Amino acid sequence: MIRILIADDHPYVRKGLKQILDETSDIKVGGEAATGQEALERLSAGQWDVLVLDLTMPGRSGLDILHDLKKLYPKLPVLVLSMHSENEFAIRVLRAGAAGYLTKESAPDELIRAIRKIYNGGKYISAAIAEKIARDFNTDLLPHERLSDREFQIMKLIAKGQSLKSIGEELSLSPKTITTYRTRILEKMQLSTNAEIVQYVIHYHLI
């Protein structure tokens, strides 16, 4: 029996995923979590075979949680679920240690297959995302693809209109550190202002 922990802040999403998995005889949802921190606590309190993790939950980002998970539970397969279909997100979570990446749109059709594959040591991404990655493989990197995971995270928070102070508080970093990250982001992307960051992020559908 494959014992699953589902971490997603939307109760209806968790319910829907559970209904899909309840149709199987070899997969059991043993617990749920509404935040990344709650997921870490549930993991420490039990034995789990696979974690299904939402990429965007309240508090710390899914990428941050994923980095922690791979340090604490390096052998635990993590299947990331996201609203984003862009290959940028898939590449970043796989680099961060996830065993699989699914969009929530494709989850009803592919969730069971993905869980079984990563449980058995494989990697899983949807066919649509695999095709996008293959198509873009030989093209030059876009400016945002040159950012580190932390720079990419801060860029999105700036684009959402958060002040540097509030970003620092959310990420437990000093305002000076956030300012340094902002400078690097602008230099790497050859932009000049926060407004240009907003326009760029909207253009590439990064939030």
The shape is globular
User: What is the fold-level CATH name, i.e. the topology of the largest domain?
Assistant: Rossmann fold
Task: Classify the beta-strand content into a percent band.
Answer: 5-15%
Please give the number of β-strands. 6
Our count of domains comes out at 2
* Low-pLDDT residue intervals, each spanning 5 or more residues: none
Termini separation (Å)?
37 Å
- Elements, N to C (H/E): EHEHEHEHEHEHHHHH
Describe the strand arrangement of the main beta sheet, using strand numbers: 2-1-3-4-5-6
Describe the sheet with the most strands. 6 strands, parallel
Round the Cα radius of gyration to an integer and report it.
18 Å
The level-1 CATH class of the largest domain: Alpha Beta
Counted by DSSP, the helix tally is 10
Helix content: 40-55%
Q: CATH superfamily of the largest domain, please?
A: Response regulator
CATH architecture name of the largest domain: 3-Layer(aba) Sandwich
Mean pLDDT: 88
Which class do the helix and strand fractions yield? alpha/beta
Brief characterization of the structure:
It is built from 10 helices and 6 strands.
Describe this structure in words.
With 207 residues, the chain is α/β, with parallel strands linked by helices. It folds into 2 domains: 2-136, Response regulator (Rossmann fold); 143-203, Winged helix-like DNA-binding domain superfamily/Winged helix DNA-binding domain (Arc Repressor Mutant, subunit A). 52% of the residues lie in helices and 14% in strands. It is built from 10 helices and 6 strands. It has a 6-stranded parallel beta sheet, sandwiched between helices. Helix 7 (149-159) packs across helix 9 and helix 7 packs across helix 10. The mean pLDDT is 88.
